[in-house]
TrEMBL record:
<keyword id="KW-0175">Coiled coil</keyword>
<dbReference type="InterPro" id="IPR044290">
    <property type="entry name" value="RRA1/2/3"/>
</dbReference>
<dbReference type="GO" id="GO:0071555">
    <property type="term" value="P:cell wall organization"/>
</dbReference>
<keyword id="KW-0333">Golgi apparatus</keyword>
<dbReference type="InterPro" id="IPR029044">
    <property type="entry name" value="Nucleotide-diphossugar_trans"/>
</dbReference>
<feature type="transmembrane region" description="Helical">
    <location>
        <begin position="16"/>
        <end position="34"/>
    </location>
</feature>
<protein>
    <recommendedName>
        <fullName>Glycosyltransferase</fullName>
        <ecNumber>2.4.2.-</ecNumber>
    </recommendedName>
</protein>
<keyword id="KW-1133">Transmembrane helix</keyword>
<keyword id="KW-0472">Membrane</keyword>
<keyword id="KW-0812">Transmembrane</keyword>
<dbReference type="GO" id="GO:0016757">
    <property type="term" value="F:glycosyltransferase activity"/>
</dbReference>
<feature type="coiled-coil region">
    <location>
        <begin position="64"/>
        <end position="105"/>
    </location>
</feature>
<dbReference type="GO" id="GO:0080147">
    <property type="term" value="P:root hair cell development"/>
</dbReference>
<keyword id="KW-0735">Signal-anchor</keyword>
<feature type="domain" description="Nucleotide-diphospho-sugar transferase">
    <location>
        <begin position="178"/>
        <end position="400"/>
    </location>
</feature>
<dbReference type="Pfam" id="PF03407">
    <property type="entry name" value="Nucleotid_trans"/>
</dbReference>
<dbReference type="InterPro" id="IPR005069">
    <property type="entry name" value="Nucl-diP-sugar_transferase"/>
</dbReference>
Length: 423
């Protein structure tokens, strides 16, 4: 409280000092421009005119020259003082603004508290959700109101190029009775497909930049669109579970989310170390005693399956990624992870978003399945994934079908014929 009071007094003192300084400058200017007062009949004349009038009657040429020189000098000093006032005023405004922002952030997080005993202190992990704004997209708001469950929805983007995989995914969703599933139809073909198969869909209003990629792009190109499309879902106040179409659902994923972070994503990692992080030691023998440098490593979050809470950091993440993808030909997953993990440093402000990596056996990528699980009899029997994402292999459709055969239809050798990687 004492520190806050001191800062308030300092700001008040700064305001008073600036006010006095402005008053002095105004007084000097008025003394030069209006030597006979504001209401004198000659006050309508300019300063130069007054000098000229005076000089014709009672001033010598030398005196006139000196007055002009003094006037020029005062004008120059006056301009410099005005500049200093502007700079001081701007500094004061920024200081007050920064103080106010910090105050608002503190208020939004709650009142100040004392730290508890050793081992009991836990930081805040969950940001507050935004206030929904239905005016952003009333049509989408109506669709989500009808299909969402507990203000959450699965969203998949699709065009005609991925129709076969979409069929496998929709079948898995219907088999589980998941109602809050929505396809963002990127072309007329998928719109008609969803209509004929009783699948909830949403077709965006015409957008040249999105439509060009949406109608003709392949899997990666379409994947990059999601960062622009999902923003409105979050603005409407809905939690979004984004799913690429090369994913088979085997359990309801909403029963396996923690919802304690802004971003909850599956991993491209294939072991505890790669999925959850490890201390990697870099060896540089030329450094002698300091040859070993410790680094932290983690395999990337997969940008094809993640859950976003409707928070400011989540929306900022979408904006950052969409902005970078619009300016350069980049892989969306690389940009997604750079924005999530790069810390603030000179000339860069990092994203302040909380994040959680999903259980790699529940939210399983195809490397884990085909390199590890199918070869381990115990894992093969005991592990029942929530989803399987065929992200590591190009023969996506056939592996998706094999996943269904193995986990749904019980065909024990359904996974055996595939190589670990791609041929």
């Amino acid at each position: 409280m004492a520190g806050r009071r001191d800062r308030t007094q300092q700001l008040r003192g700064s305001r008073i000092a600036i006010a006095i300084l402005i008053g002095i400058i105004i007084g000097c200017v008025c003394a030069v421009l209006f030597p006979n007062g504001f209401f004198n009949s000659s006050s309508s004349l300019t300063a130069n005119e007054r000098v000229q009038v005076g000089s014709s009657s009672c001033e010598s040429p030398a005196r006139i020259k000196m007055l002009k020189s003094d006037f020029a000098s005062l004008s120059e000093k006056n301009a410099e003082l005005k500049k200093q006032i502007r700079e001081l005023t701007e500094k004061l405004r920024l200081a007050e603004q920064g103080s106010d922002n910090a105050r608002k952030q503190v208020l939004s997080l709650g009142s100040q508290i004392k730290a508890g005993p050793f081992g009991t202190v836990k930081s805040l992990r969950t940001n507050p959700t935004i206030l929904p704004d239905e005016s952003v997209n009333p049509r989408l708001a109506k669709i989500l109101e009808d299909i969402a469950v507990d203000k959450e929805v699965i969203v998949a983007l699709a065009n005609s190029n991925v129709k076969a995989m979409l069929e496998v995914q929709i079948a898995s969703v219907k088999r589980l009775g998941i109602k809050n599933y929505l396809v963002v139809a990127l072309d007329d073909y998928i719109e008609n497909f969803c209509k004929s198969n009783d699948v909830a869909y949403y077709k965006r209003d015409p957008d040249k930049d999105v439509d060009t990629v949406g109608k003709t792009g392949g899997n990666h190109a379409v994947s990059g669109l999601k960062f622009r499309v999902l923003r409105e879902f979050l603005q409407l106040g809905y939690g979004v579970l984004l799913s690429d179409v090369d994913i088979v659902f085997l359990q309801n994923p909403f029963r396996h989310l923690y919802r304690d972070s802004d971003v909850e994503s599956m991993s491209d990692g294939h072991s505890n170390m790669t999925a959850y992080g490890f201390n990697d030691v870099f060896d540089e023998p030329a450094m002698g005693w300091a040859r070993y440098a410790h680094t932290m490593r983690i395999w990337v979050f997969n940008s094809g399956f993640f859950y976003l809470r409707p928070t400011v950091p989540s929306i900022e993440l979408l904006d950052r990624v969409a902005d970078r993808l619009s300016k350069a030909k980049l892989w969306d997953q690389a940009v997604f992870n750079e924005e999530l993990f790069y810390p603030s440093h000179p000339d860069y402000i990092g994203l302040h978003a909380s994040k959680r990596v999903m259980d790699m056996y529940e939210f399983m990528n195809s490397k884990v399945l085909f390199k590890t699980v199918r070869k381990d009899q115990e894992l093969k029997k005991k592990v029942k994934p929530v989803i399987v994402h065929v992200n590591y292999h190009p023969d996506k459709l056939y592996r998706m079908q094999a996943v269904v055969e193995f986990y749904v239809n019980g065909k024990q050798d359904a996974l055996d014929s595939f190589p670990d990687g791609s041929e």
